[in-house]
Design a protein that fits this description.
Blueprint (H helix, E strand, L loop, with lengths): L1 H14 L5 E2 L4 H4 L6 H6 L3 E5 L6 E2 L1 H19 L5 E10 L2 E8 L31 H11 L4 E6 L3 E9 L7
Parallel strand pairs: 2-4
Antiparallel strand pairs: 1-3, 4-5, 5-7, 6-7
């Protein structure tokens, strides 16, 4: 029953019509989520650095969900680190913009990277990390619907970097 509800929610979020708007200034103001109280608890002793991000044309609600999932994972997987660091960055390269969320958390073995964006897939089997294995599947679906790609790079006990592309706007949004 729970898996049906999760799949149903994923389908609704990732299949609703996209309302693409130019994001002025950057994703910093429109795409990054406001930190809610549960995430604020995770901010204790976290160095969160958000670099200037290139402008893009996205559905703001869906892009906010992308960052909620990526930042939520970064907060989760840096727990227990003496110095927790999370960085959000981006740059325009030719006809696409590349965005990244990196952390110095648990990381993962790249041999299992192909499973990361699958529905209900979890690389960390211990129950000390909450989650359903849906967040990254949702991220991948949203980014692909926007015409982008998504991938990850990591090393166990060093950290992870989740990257995605979006088509660059033909001209900067005014």
């Amino acid at each position: 029953r729970l898996s049906f509800l999760i799949v149903s929610a994923l389908w609704r979020i990732s299949n609703r019509p996209i309302s693409v708007d130019p994001v002025k200034d950057s994703l910093r103001t429109s795409g990054l989520p406001v930190i809610s109280p549960p995430m604020a608890d995770a901010l204790v002793c976290v160095q969160l650095q958000v670099q200037p991000l290139p402008a893009c044309e996205v559905d703001p609600a869906l892009m906010r969900q992308v960052f909620v999932n990526l930042l939520g994972n970064a907060f989760k997987y840096t727990r227990g680190r003496p110095e927790r660091r999370i960085e959000v960055s981006g740059e325009r390269r030719g006809d696409e913009c590349i965005y990244e969320v990196a952390d110095n958390g648990r990381g993962f073995d790249m041999r299992f990277a192909t499973k990361l964006f699958g529905l209900f897939e979890r690389l960390h089997g211990d129950d000390s990390i909450e989650g359903t294995g849906v967040g990254l599947a949702m991220v991948a679906r949203i980014i692909r619907r926007h015409g982008g790609r998504v991938w990850a790079d990591a090393k166990p006990d060093v950290g992870a970097r989740f990257s995605f592309t979006l088509p660059a706007p033909t001209e900067d949004p005014a």
